[in-house]
Amino acid sequence: MTADATDLMFRAASFAARAHKNQLRKDGQTPYVAHPFRACLVVRHVFGVDDPRVLTAALLHDTIEDTTTDFDDIAEAFGVDVARWVAALTKDMRLEDGPREAEYHRVLAAAGWPVVVCKLADIYDNLSDSKTLSTKGTERNIRRATEYLDAMRPTLPAEAKAAFAVVEGKLAAMKT
Predict the structure, then answer these.
(1) How is the chain split into domains, by residue range?
(2) Active-site residue among 50, 51, 66, 129?
(3) Residue 65 appears among annotated catalytic residues
(4) Any transmembrane segments, and where (predicted)?
């Protein structure tokens, strides 16, 4: 990996850490930024994707949705492609849950492989993190993961098929 690619990801890791600095995961103890860091590690080490821009998007995938960061902040710091990918991974929190999820499913179904791989890493990490949740929380994670996989399955980009199979296997193991 080039020095520029490494610098891009280091800047993204710092950006995500600053953006999520006062947030915790649902267990109330883990700094939230552990989630995007783990999602990035899943993209690289579980799915085998080493494209620095995709890894950067994985690091930033929740910044627009969960912080004061906006598209322009991401575009200026990391480029328009990364900003588009992060925006596609962002739910429109102005909508109520039902319409928000339906729109998000539509976006995921139309997304290119970088977005799909980042979303699959997000799902993988959320499923892995389910052990810290209540039974109800775990059931919600499984339900949402199933819905997202169902939304992506019909139009799944070839570049994301192996990652999809890994997440499907993790989900199936959790359902048993």
Answers:
(1) 3-175
(2) 66
(3) yes
(4) none
DSSP assigned state of 24:
B
CA atoms within 13 A on the CB side of 113: 12
Top CATH class of 3-175 equals: mainly alpha
Active site residue 7: no
Q: Report d(CA 176, CA 171) in Å as an integer.
A: 9
Catalytic residue among 27, 50, 51, 65: 65
Query: Which residues contact residue 14 at a Cβ distance below 8 angstroms, ignoring those fewer than 6 apart?
Result: none
Per-residue pLDDT of the chain (176 residues; tens, 9 = 90+): 787 878 999 999 999 999 999 999 988 899 999 999 999 999 999 999 999 999 999 999 999 999 999 999 999 999 999 999 999 999 999 999 999 999 999 999 999 999 999 999 999 999 998 888 889 989 999 999 999 999 999 999 999 999 999 999 999 999 88
CA dist 16 and 135 (Å) reads 29
Question: Looking at this protein, which amino acid is placed at residue 176?
Answer: T
Nearest to 35 by CA among 127, 104, 113: 127
